Amino acid sequence: LLYALHGLSPAGDAYTVKGFEAKRSQCKLAWQIMINATSHRSAVTALALKLGGLKLQGEASALLEALEAQHQSIALSFYSGIGLRLQRADADLMFRIEDRCISQGIVALPVHDSFLVRKNAQKI
Predict the structure, then answer these.
(1) 124 residues of the chain, pLDDT tens digit each
(2) Who is most buried in 21, 30, 97, 98, counting CB within 10 A?
(3) Beta-sheet pairing, 114-117 with 108-111
C-alpha cells in the first residue's frame, strides 16, 4: 500500500533485503516499526527491544538503514507514523471487498489481509 500511495510498485519482495536475506521476518518487523515510528531513533530502540534488548541497537540500526537504502523511492514516508493511515486504508479495502462479495451472494471469510472463498464460488 505504501508503494501504491507513492504511485509506484516495489521491485520484488519488499522484505527481502540485501545483506539480510536469511532474516525476512526481522525485515518485515523492521518495516512495520519504521512506518509506525515518528523518528529513526525511536525505531532503532523499538526494533532492538523486539530483537532481544537494547544491546542490539547496532543490529537494529543496520537493518533499518538497509531497508531505507533499498526503498529510497518511498523514504519520505519512513518515520512519519503513516502506518495507521495504511491500516485504515487496508481495512476500508477489505470492507469494500467483503461488501461486494455479499452483494453477489458469495460467502467470503476474511483472514488478516486475505479472503477464503469456496473454489468456483457461484452466486447463491
Answers:
(1) 999 999 999 988 999 999 999 999 999 999 999 999 999 999 999 999 999 999 999 999 999 999 999 999 999 999 999 999 999 999 999 999 999 999 998 999 999 889 999 887 666 5
(2) 30
(3) antiparallel
